[in-house]
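Title: Comparing notes on inverse folding

I've been comparing how different people in this forum approach sequence design from structure. To keep things fair, I'm posting one structure and asking everyone to reply with a full sequence. Here's the target:
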């Protein structure tokens, strides 16, 4: 290999210097200006001594040359000998080149700095902030709910790190979420899987971290890699909540995140909610009400003063809160047996509109014994369910439904999806049939004999993008409602949709329940970000084992048509081994946003129930 020449070495050194950026360029221009001024000043001293005398010697010449270099227009007022004017012209031309280059360098450097600031690459200096890692449609629901939850807190901050443009993230949130009040939103551009980018979020002083499942191929792999990056940091005190799309990756994610991570199985949670809603009209509304921060929320509260009392006696202990269960020795039980004795270190699980409203009532609201009814619930017989459409979570939905329905029940899967009704072996109570049809076609739906079914589930087709899939779902809902109206048929309809914006359109089709999977997961993540201990409570609530939410006919509990306190409803439910948490008025079923659902009502306020009203209870099947 040939030895480098001096010229090559100098050029290499010069290139390395220039690569240092704007400061180096300005330095070279400064040296060029200094060389130009000194050279012209020296030539002026040598060639035009008379002009030097007129301009106060060397200091005057240096100043005059500097001014011509910085402001070339000054040459127009110069006079003197030809050599003097020629030298001033040279320095002015050199100044034009240097100044114009300097302006370009400064402009380019300033533009680069602004772009760097827009990308959000500076470390945030906050404490007690909520960190969201990743980006998906759930982020809008999460930010909106966290803003509500932290509305009473001064200086609350939500920090988001995602591999997206910072201004784009801020604009999207402003558009979809709207006013965020006193909460400050801080966005940073970076990859949540990169330790250097995680350094930007000040995780050591954060309140909690939420890892979102990104909208990309194999999203769970990104979540698990992010959990590994978080596990490498010394933040064991920091609650971490993560959303996964597949149950198969839960074990790997738990191993990556450690025992302290709280995992949300998106498909599993949405599937369970769809199944519960399909069998009990209005259950999605009840669950959404418990998940959001608008009305009643679930709290865990130690109450040593209730130690020694039974769970049944504790049901009447709060006037503005509704007791729903106990957390004992780290184990959550909703609607435990009425004679369960409360220990001093047990926590009461209850529903309240705000934690500031949780206080023991004294005295207890009296029960109206003459209004209590003891009608036995009818045991349901075999059911027929129609499943329209197919997607990745459909098989899971069928399996969960198999755990709810009575023996001898049937589910018919209708659609044109090539994978429909596949991988459904091992069902205990359900018989599965498949029917080929276009679920958006009116005559094809009529041929299914929809009037033979008690429940209809409409799933979004995974072969289409979210917008098109929701459009097809809306078409199916409208066709079903028209068939119901024409033939006088009666069956419940629960629909799955992707986009929350399509809910208002679906309400025109009057579906009994609409489950927006991304919204449900976003709400659940927001709840766990505020209180990770609620993970066990919601896990119990969505499980088919133990007590679940049911709307039951109000006439099975109290007399209808006469004013009755809700405390009386609670007592009637207690005698059945159930916990009443609210009611649903038939007159408001089609009135958003509550759809007739009232949770955690005032126990002393009388209400006259009407036929078709329902009591919402936690009960065993």
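Reply #1:
Here's my take.
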């Amino acid at each position: 290999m040939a030895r480098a020449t001096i010229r090559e070495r100098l050029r290499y050194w010069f290139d390395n210097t220039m690569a240092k950026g704007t400061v180096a360029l300005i330095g070279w221009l400064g040296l060029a200006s200094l060389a130009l001024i000194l050279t012209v000043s020296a030539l002026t001293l040598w060639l035009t001594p008379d002009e030097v005398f007129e301009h106060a010697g060397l200091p005057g010449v240096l100043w005059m040359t500097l001014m011509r270099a910085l402001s070339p227009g000054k040459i127009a007022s110069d006079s003197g000998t030809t050599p003097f004017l020629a030298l001033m012209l040279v320095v002015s031309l050199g100044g034009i080149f240097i100044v114009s280059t300097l302006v370009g360098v400064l402009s380019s450097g300033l533009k680069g700095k602004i772009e760097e600031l827009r990308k959000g690459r500076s470390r945030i200096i906050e404490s007690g902030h909520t960190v969201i890692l990743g980006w998906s449609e759930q982020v809008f629901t999460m930010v909106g709910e966290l803003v509500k939850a932290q509305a009473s807190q001064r200086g609350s901050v939500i920090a988001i790190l995602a591999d997206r443009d910072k201004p784009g993230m801020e604009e999207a949130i402003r558009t979809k979420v709207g006013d965020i009040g006193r909460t400050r939103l801080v966005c940073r551009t970076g990859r949540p899987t990169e330790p250097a980018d995680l350094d930007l979020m000040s995780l050591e002083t954060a309140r909690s971290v939420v890892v979102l499942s990104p909208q990309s191929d194999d999203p769970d792999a990104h979540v698990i890699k992010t959990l590994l990056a978080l596990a490498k940091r010394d933040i064991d005190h920091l609650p971490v909540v993560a959303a996964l799309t597949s149950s198969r990756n839960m074990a790997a994610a738990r191993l990556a995140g450690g025992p302290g991570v709280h995992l949300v199985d998106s498909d599993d949670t949405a599937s369970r909610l769809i199944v519960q809603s399909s069998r009990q009209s209005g259950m999605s509304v009840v669950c959404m009400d418990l998940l959001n921060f608008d009305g009643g929320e679930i709290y865990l509260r130690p109450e040593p003063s209730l130690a020694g009392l039974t769970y049944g006696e504790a049901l009447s202990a709060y006037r503005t809160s509704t007791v729903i269960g106990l957390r004992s020795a780290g184990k959550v039980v909703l609607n435990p047996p009425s004679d369960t004795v409360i220990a001093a270190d047990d926590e009461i699980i209850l529903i309240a509109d705000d934690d500031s409203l949780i206080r023991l009532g004294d005295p207890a609201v009296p029960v109206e014994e003459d209004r209590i009814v003891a009608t036995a619930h009818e045991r349901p017989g075999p059911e027929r369910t129609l499943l329209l459409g197919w997607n990745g979570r459909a098989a899971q939905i069928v399996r969960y439904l198999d755990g709810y329905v009575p023996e001898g029940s049937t589910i018919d899967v209708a659609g044109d999806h090539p994978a429909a009704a596949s991988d459904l072996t091992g069902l205990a109570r359900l018989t599965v049939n498949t029917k080929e049809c276009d679920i958006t076609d009116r005559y094809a739906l009529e041929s299914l004999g929809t009037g033979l079914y008690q429940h209809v589930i409409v799933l979004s087709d995974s072969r289409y993008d979210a917008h098109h899939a929701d459009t097809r779902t809306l078409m199916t809902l409208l066709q079903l409602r028209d068939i119901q109206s024409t033939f006088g048929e009666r069956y419940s309809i629960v629909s799955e949709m992707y986009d929350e914006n399509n809910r208002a359109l679906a309400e025109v089709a009057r579906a009994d329940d609409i489950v927006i999977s991304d919204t449900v997961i976003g709400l659940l993540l927001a709840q766990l970000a505020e209180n990770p201990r609620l993970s066990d409570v919601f896990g119990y609530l969505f499980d088919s084992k133990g007590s679940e939410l049911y709307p039951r006919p109000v006439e099975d509990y109290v007399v209808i048509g006469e004013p009755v306190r809700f405390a009386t409803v609670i007592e009637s439910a207690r005698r059945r081994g159930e916990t009443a948490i609210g009611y649903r008025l038939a007159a408001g079923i089609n009135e958003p946003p509550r759809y007739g659902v009232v949770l955690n009502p005032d126990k002393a306020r009388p209400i006259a129930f009407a036929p078709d009203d329902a009591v919402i209870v936690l009960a065993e099947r």
